[in-house]
Specification:
single chain, alpha+beta, 5-stranded mixed β-sheet, 4-stranded antiparallel β-sheet, 9 strands, disordered N terminus
């Protein structure tokens, strides 16, 4: 089974929960332990306030989450700290010029949020994309409602 993403292919191996990411001539073997360690680094950055959530004009979907639901930075932090390797979806190559060497990790999480202009709590499926820089700083590129369902490779 293959899945295309920005000029790379992810082939799913059933043995020992391994994902093989093939991009050009480069091949990486991604295990649950790799994702567990990645999340450990992500959570350390969040706990140490070495992260930022992009909420600018290029990230309108992120802004819309805060407009549509009662959510704040503390709730974002709580959600990130609750992520597990089972929430992992895929790895994408950064497609922005000059940053092609970066890998972006995608996770999904179902959370219950209160509608901002209503009285209903609803389950929202989130799309969360990280860019962990070499210096340990974390950029939360995407933190918004999913536009389409994600595939979770370790579930």
């Amino acid at each position: 089974m293959t899945k295309s993403c920005y000029r790379c292919k992810i082939m799913i191996g059933n043995l020992k929960n391994t994902i093989i990411l093939s991009s050009g001539e480069k091949e990486l073997h991604i295990t649950m332990e790799h994702i567990r360690q990645y999340l450990c680094d992500v959570k350390e950055a969040v706990r140490n306030q070495r992260y930022r959530l992009d909420r600018n004009t290029k990230r309108q979907d992120n802004i819309n989450l805060f407009l549509d639901y009662v959510i704040d930075e503390a709730k974002v932090k709580e959600i990130i700290l609750r992520l597990t390797e089972n929430d992992f979806s895929e790895i994408l190559q950064n497609k922005h010029k000059g940053y092609e060497h970066e890998q972006l990790y995608v996770f999904g999480k179902d959370v219950v949020l209160l509608e901002r202009n209503g009285i209903e709590q609803t389950t929202v499926s989130l799309y969360i994309k990280f860019n962990k820089l070499d210096n340990g700083f974390l950029i939360v590129i995407s933190f918004h409602k999913q536009k389409r369902p994600l595939t979770y490779y370790f579930k």
